[in-house]
Structure formats: C-alpha cells, structure tokens
Amino acid sequence: MNDIFCDILLKSVSASMACAVVLFARALLRKAPKIYSYAMWSVVLFHLICPFSIESAAALLPKPESVIEQDVLNTLTGSDGPAYYYADDKTPSKTVAASDGDDSAAAPQSANAYYAAQIFNIENFTPASISWLWAACVAFLCAFAVVRYIRIKSMLFDAVRVYDNIYSSDKVIMPFVLGIIKPRIYVPLNMKANEMDYVIAHERTHISRRDYLTSLIAFFALAVHCFNPLIWICYHLMIRDMEMSCDEAVLNKNLDAYGYSQTLLNCTERTGASSGWSAGRVSWTAYPIMFGSVNIKNRVKNVLRYKKPAWWIAALCVGLTFAVAVGCAANKPISAEVISIIDDMPSDEAIAAITPTPMPTQIPKPTSTPLPNMTPSPTPKPDTKTNFLVVGEDKSGARTDVILAVCFDSATAQFDVVSIPRDTYVVMPKETIAEMEELDLTPPHSGKMKINEINAYGGKEHGMKYLRQYMEEFLGINLDYEIELNLKAFDSVVDELGGVYFDVPKRGLYYNDPYQNLYINIPGGYQLLNGKQAEGLVRYRASYNNGDLDRINVQQEFMKALIEQVLDKENIFANAVDVLKGIMGKVRTDFGITDIPKYVGYIGDIKAENVRFHTLPGEAEYFSGGWYFVHDETEMEEFIKEIFAE
Hints:
By secondary structure, this protein is of the alpha+beta class. Helix content is 47%, strand content 16%. Helix 1 runs antiparallel to helix 2, helix 8 runs antiparallel to helix 9 (229-251) and helix 18 runs antiparallel to helix 21.
C-alpha cells in the first residue's frame, strides 16, 4: 500500500505540471471554441490514470523522479558516517547534538517514498501513516458514486420509454444521461416540445462523444488523487469545458441560440435549491450528466456570443492543442548518465551488510569562546562594503554544513570569502536555551554543539535568525543579507554551466554510505565534473588528514574554478543566466528584486582574481572521539578587521 500511495504521489506531481501547461493554454484560448480546451484535459487525465509514462525528447515535462534524481541516487550529504549513537547494546538511535556526521540518518525507505519525500519536502516521510487514510478516502468517494448511481437507477424503474433511448418520468426534474453500456436520456414528464428538441440534441451529443465515460473516468482519477487540490480545480474546469463545448456543438446544427439559452434557464429554475439533483450538489460527482448542471450563467453568455470560428482561427487552435498534447503527454527521458548511476548502485545485500559506527555521546568542556547572547548589535553599514552570510544546507535541510561570510567591496569590485569550519565548537547560553523553550523548540541539553547545528536547533522558522545573530556577534560585523542554498541548487548550477573542469587528487575520491544515500566514485586527474560529481568532491573528507579543514581547502579551490568559468568574459552574461536558472526555487534569501539594480552594474567589473578565499584562523582539536575546530581569538581580530573594515 505504501509503494502504491507513493507512486500515486509521483503521478500527481506529473499531472500537476501538465495542469499548469493546460491552464496556461486554456487562458490563451478563453475566447476560442471550448472543444479545444476540453480536448487538452485528456493530457492531464492520461497522467493521472496511466500506469506507465511515455518518454520523448520533444516532451515539455520532466519526469518527477528526474527532477531530484541526482539527490535520490547520489545525494552527497557528508562523509562523516551515519549520525547514530547506541543507546543500548542493540538499538541505534538518531541524535542531532551528538552526531559528527553531515546528516541525520534516516530509516531505510523505498525509492518511491524517498522521491515523494524530496518532491513534497516532507521530513521523516512515513507513507504508512497516511497511505491507509488515503485508501479510505478513495474508497469513500468511489462508494459514494456507486451508491448514488444505484439510488438514482432504482428511482427510475418505472420510467416510460418515449422513443429510441429517451425515457420520461415524473421523478425527473432536470434532463440527464445515465448509464455506461447503453446510456439513456431521461427527461421530465410533459416537457415542452420546443425545449425537448434542444435537450435531446444536447444529450445525444454527449453520448456520441462518450462524455458519460469521460466523466466517469475523470471522477475515478479525482478520487485517486483526492489529496491534490489542483486536481479538484481541474476536474471542475474540465466539466465546465465539456458542457460548453457540447452547447457549441448543438449550436453548430443551426439551432436558435436564444431558444437554447432560454431552455437552459428554464430547466435550471425547475430544479429548485432544495432538489436532490440540483446543480450545486451534483456537479462534482460522476453521475449523472445533466443538461443544466454546471455554471449556467457563463454557459448562457457563451451560447449567446458563440460564432463558428474562421478556418484560420480554427487552424491556430488545433495547432496549439496539438502542441500541448505532444509536449505534455510524454515526459523527458532520464539521461543515460543517471541510468548508469542506477546500474552501479550497490545491492540490497551490500547495503544491509554495512553497520553504523557508534559515535561518542560525551563532549568535554570547551576551551573556545561560548556562544554569545543572541542580541543583534546595531553595527553601522559600511559605505562601500556589503556583507553576506551564505550557507549551504545539508540534505536534511537542518544543518548548515557550508558557512561563508562574504564581503563585497564596490570600490574595488573585490570579493573576500571567509569559510567558517562547520565543526567550530560553541556553547549556547542559558538565556537562549530559555528563549527556545518558550518557543517550544528543543535546545541542546548541555548547550554544547558545533556551529552547523545552530540552524537545526532553531528549526526552519528560527534557525537562520540564531545563526545570523551569532555570526554577527562572533565576527563583530553587520551582515546585510543572508543567502541559504540547498544541495539541489549546487548541482543544478554546475549542470546548467555544462560542468566544471577540476584537477581531482590523483588517488581519487571513493566513499559509500548507504545510510546517507551517499556514493562517491570520482577517479583522480583533471576532468570535467558534473553536478553530482562536483557535490561529491566538495562533500568528501573521509581520507583527509585534517578532516574538515582539508575539505574547506578543496571547496575553495573548486569555487575558484567555478567562478573562473562563470566570469568568462565571452559568456559572462549567458553564464549568469544559467546560474539563475540553477538556483531558481532552491534559494531562500532576503536579497530582494529591488536590491539587484544596486549591484548588477558591477558584473562586468568582477574578475576571478578579485575573488579571494580565506579560512577562519584556528586549529582542529580532538575531543572524546570527535574533531572540533577552535578559533584563535587574537589572530581572528586582526583577520576580520583587515577584510571587513572600511
């Protein structure tokens, strides 16, 4: 059941992307005949119910899996080992404060569950907790439709056949089509002859187009994807387009538009607000298809202004409908590179054979400066220098394993980038712990932690605030903006640029950790790295003698290579667009659109040699089985003054 539900989630994402395209195309065709809008909904319906997907290079939509394929198959969330300690001799438990890994380990889950968790940004995604609730909702909606059909059918057992498949009954208030194999048209008893002509023409058009089957299938798809509000909206719009297109088809038979619209109004008035078959109460169900059941006001307006389009307008509408059908019915194929990644994945037996290494639970009293009180200091903003806090989230989005203080000097068009080691040892003061408890957050028990865990304890709402406040007190500067990127942004930027050339250490980088879904396999030598490989390079530290400090050096060298490529004079503006495409939707920042004009003029003046990288002065120290970074206060004071002071 869990895998079925997760597969439905992925199909719902694919259908939602198709919905977005259809809604846009539908807006372009708002004054065109509704048959074209109605036809385009078949693309969405295909994505909702088809058990397989078609791949085509001409497709507009990516597969939902491919959007996050690099993360799912090769997400490199650190290389410190699984974040587990042993609470007893047998059971591993997850902890945030005591972990020395780059991520909190997650329980094994199916590929579909993992894809769904990444796409919907759900932490600790457990489909078992909601899959049965989803199944119950689907069963309820389907049962409702079946019971409704049986009830209506039983009420019409004494209906009298007028001719052909047309039946009349005193229990019928509004004309409708009912049935699956041999659908019947039911009309009210003693209906006027002139109204009967319009009604029969309308309902026979529904039958000839098999709209009663389309409505049934669409309702089933709605039930299966009942958790997606966009599908409910699209179902409603599809029914509207179906009825309006049917109205237009009837008018093409040279029937009077005024008489037809008056029949619509008359039938609707007869239903009454309390009728069991009134428009408002049945428009979202599968049975029946009623003559005046949907959006009468707009239908009447559409009927009165409808004119058969010129041939060239019809040709344009057909072309757009065909383009949407071709572009949205299929998905872009997953690249051969990703397929090779899947083939190279370790077997389940190999993954099961790996056991997490126990991590220490006790950390000694620090010798470094405790975390200061989280109160921002009103430091005046420099005239020419702008300071940024740039952080890179780990895969879970909890820790900020890449922390940079960046200073841009507009007078010299120079960037200074200071790397803050993720293992910098801090202690949260009692005042801040009390503040977190008032906010119903869970502070560290002893207040001791690494700097990259501040964001985790503060949570999504308060984490960056605490980190920014600490960095301002710690460095003694004012941070004007903050930029928070996730792993997808890094991968996407590298891939949008076509890869980055880099000289990988000759020994190569090899590391596998299935608990973090982390697989690094990069041979040594000068080569072009794609997003997945580049992420492995900057996350790797398994065999470095100085742990995180050596990793920071590699990160800085790679960023130099990346910046040199971005700032290539011949392609600088094209590369800038690629960078924006890569980070679109994957960045949280208070650097707004109104701030861009202040700095866009400096793009042409920035040179790769004007970007300087630094590392916070200090040294690594080993405490109780783990490495921590202790900064040098005396040296850091001069260091910060040289970089950030005017």
